[in-house]
Amino acid sequence: MSHKTALKIYEWASYILLVAATVVYFWLKSQGVSIVLIILILAVFMRLMMERTRFRACEEENDQLQADLRRLTQLLAEEKKKHQNAQSK
Hints:
With 89 residues, the protein is an all-alpha fold. It has two helices and no strands. The chain has helices at residues 3-28, 33-88. Helix 1 packs antiparallel against helix 2.
């Protein structure tokens, strides 16, 4: 599953859980407080999972950019070396 898909799933799941908690609260009033708390905890958990997924996606992108930078730096060094060898001959 891609990072964008996971982010959307966690985001929408947290919204749905918040709406469900609101509905349960008004439906059960004083009896369903523990159920509402459980649903709210699940909503917070979904938000945390969303942030974790976003963090992992950023880390993977940073790793890929660093690898690209290393490769480009190596290519630049090789081109400079070739240019210097050509000038010295």
